[in-house]
Amino acid sequence: MQTGLLRALHALGLVDTVAGQPAWPFAWRIATETLLIDRGLARQLAWALGFGGFAVVLLLAGALWRRGRWPAWALALICTLLVPWPPMALV
């Protein structure tokens, strides 16, 4: 996932190269080796990404659908708050 993001940013010209390789532009990165060891943590991250994506869909639906705007936005907020976020040790 991080490699794909890095390649996409490099293809768009948004990141520099260091020694011929694209340079990671952020101060943090996900420790993917930890995900390989701890399957529970990997599931937790998958749930967080799924709920986060669902919240984004709800935000967009609320922006486009005038009658259901506030319920969609409220549900997006609830999804964001109740998602089992992985610990910061993963980053």
What is this entry, summarized?
This protein is mainly alpha-helical. 62% of the residues lie in helices and 4% in strands.
Keywords:
91 residues, mainly alpha, two-stranded antiparallel sheet, 4 helices, 62% helix, 4% strand, flat
Q: What can you see in these coordinates?
A:
The longest helix has 26 residues, at 39-64. By secondary structure, the protein is mainly alpha-helical. Helices cover 62% and strands 4% of the residues. It has a two-stranded antiparallel sheet with strand order 1-2.
Radius of gyration from CA coordinates: 17 Å
Proportion in helices: 55-70%
> What can be said about the biggest beta sheet?
2 strands, antiparallel
Low-confidence stretches: none
Q: What is the mean predicted local confidence, pLDDT?
A: 82
Number of DSSP E strands? 2
Multimer state: single chain
- In N-to-C order, the SSE pattern is HEEHHH
Shape: flat
Instruction: Tell me the fraction of residues in β-strands, as a range.
Output: under 5%
List strands and helices in order, with pairings:
Layout: H1 2-11, E1 17-18, E2 21-22, H2 32-37, H3 39-64, H4 69-82
Antiparallel strand pairs: 1-2
Helix pairs in contact: 3-4
